[in-house]
């Protein structure tokens, strides 16, 4: 009897010990294969798309940049404060991630407003505090139309000014997970509860890469 | 064959209503329950993003729909809130809110009746149908 229990215990231990290491998140985006000459030899290198440098004004009217996200993984999305459609659901779901990782300096959040006319820093500030965000781990930023719409492309998120949709802006509700090298490691539908759960567990998986 | 199908659908509907009402309010009659089932579907499409699946709201941005006193005191204004939107300071469950709810002017009286039956019986403590007539009447005297 005791032997049996021991056997079961050993097997489950082995199973538990081996499992977590086996998973790694992919790098997302079209990679480019380039040939380089190193020390006289031709080598093949693969380049993955990365988020370029950026500078935006945040909810405290402070200019922040990609430097603020150095040595952090972060989740980015696009929204606007008076958006009547998908944003409330997307922000409700992102709030779950914020609350789970609050206090963990290795994880940050970055919401870009696509309504550069209305969402001035003080509007973003009031929105953030009403949502329940009370530290600088979650940044809400605004910028010029060209900068915001340009960078949304890099995050593979569609955004567009369109007077025919509710609220005046059309966009998709993706939550995009970025690693230390600024590579995209996951894209999640922020309006879906299951995909948000997946984001939560993928953040853990990605964090483990930097332990 | 047709009869079997009809019976089957009917049976399923009864089970559906029974389930829905058993989660919350056991005393709903069949019409109220039917309105609430339809209302829940419309609620998901038009209200859930802001007010949450359980009517819990979101932080101080969107108020919960679970303030039973507010719902019963303002019963005759609820249709107006949906049709015309709402702005200005209000106190819900003891918390102050001051944001804009956009007007959902495309919803017709039946839709509003379904939604309000669902909201008032499942988040509030009402036990009767919010009828189409009641909606039409309320909309005549919006503040």
Automatic annotation (TrEMBL), chain A:
A Pfam short name: SCO1-SenC
Gene3D superfamilies named among the record's database cross-references: Glutaredoxin (3.40.30.10)
Entry keyword set: Copper
Signal peptide: none
Superkingdom: Bacteria
Limits of the Thioredoxin domain: 45-208
Family matches, as PANTHER family: ELECTRON TRANSPORT PROTIN SCO1/SENC FAMILY MEMBER (PTHR12151), LINALOOL DEHYDRATASE_ISOMERASE DOMAIN-CONTAINING PROTEIN (PTHR12151:SF25)
Family: Belongs to the SCO1/2 family.
Record's protein name: SCO family protein
Naturally occurring in which organism (per UniProt): Sphingobacterium litopenaei
